[in-house]
Amino acid sequence: MSLDGHEPEHWFEPVAEHLGRAYLRYSFTKGTRQEVDFLVSALGLEQGTRVLDVGCGPGRHAHALAASGIVVHGIDISRRFVELARRDAPPGATFERLDARELPFDAEFDAAICLCQGAFGLMTADGHDETVIDGIARALRPGGRLALTAFSSYFVVKHWQDAEFDAATGVNHERTEIRDEDGTAVETSLWTGCYTPRELRLLCAAHGLVVDSISSVEPGAYGFESPTVDSAEFLLLATRCAPSADHRAPTSEP
Ligand SMILES: C[S@@+](CC[C@H](N)C(=O)[O-])C[C@H]1O[C@@H](n2cnc3c(N)ncnc32)[C@H](O)[C@@H]1O
User: Fold this and answer.
1) Which numeric CATH code is attached to 12-151+194-243?
2) Binding site membership of 17 for ligand 1 (Cβ less than 6 Å)
3) Per-residue pLDDT tens for 162-212?
4) Which atom from ligand 1 is nearest to the alpha carbon of 100?
5) What residue spans define the domains of the chain?
6) Can you tell me which atom of ligand 1 is nearest the CA of 81?
7) Is-contact 185 195, C-beta < 8 A?
8) How confident is the model at residue 123 (pLDDT cuts 50, 70, 90)?
9) Contacts 24+ apart (CB under 8 A), 127-132
10) Where are the beta strands (DSSP E) in 42-168?
11) Ligand 1 contact, 36 CB (< 6 A)
């Protein structure tokens, strides 16, 4: 499918193109205020803090953060969502069409958020989630903080009767109907990379991030509840290691 003359580089692009603003009708987007208030406190965000929003969608978190004086740069692969995010953006919020698998930033941000499968967890079984985490870690200054949500493998297997969960890769496939702003429905496939807290810890350790906490959360109800098998999402908070503790830092060993 061609999108205004562009070939999609990710399966989510045609989904976003069809949804447009109708994305913000989904109930999981309604808890932005609570999520942002929690993250401001948990990550210690202040006026002037520079935040990278990876897979920002139409910019709901970026807009709310910027309205509090935080400087946010949102990136997303969907041209449609970037265009929506730029509309009515408050001062301090900028947006760019960028593939999270090719993040060019080097220690430029005090914090990063990657929420609601914003690039991380929307890959098929191609290992690209790891590329996304690596790029996010590199974008953070040493001591910079990360908040990232990931779908729970436990929850999908235990509670999702219709799941087509691939046990070998941890990727769940579903067919669903999505509606645009006029109510026109199309059927589409969605792929979600699912995780356990242990996998998230191992990924972080491999990419220079120290895990501060992993909690079970719901959209609009972020908090510090210990991980359970009965909640759909995990919220990971982590801190970028100082270069000396970084696994990629050169050593004096021959
Ligand atoms: C479910 S939406 C979440 C959007 C937003 N973070 C939120 O919480 O509403 C996932 C977003 O990730 C974006 N995305 C997926 N893969 C991406 C990639 N490789 N690079 C950049 N953005 C990507 C999609 O275009 C989409 O906007």
Assistant:
1) 3.40.50.150
2) no
3) 779 999 999 999 898 999 998 899 999 888 999 999 999 999 999 999 999
4) 20
5) 12-151+194-243
6) 27
7) no
8) low
9) 128/101, 129/193, 129/203, 130/203, 130/206, 130/207, 131/101, 132/54, 132/100, 132/101, 132/103
10) 50-54, 71-76, 93-97, 109-114, 140-152, 164-166
11) no
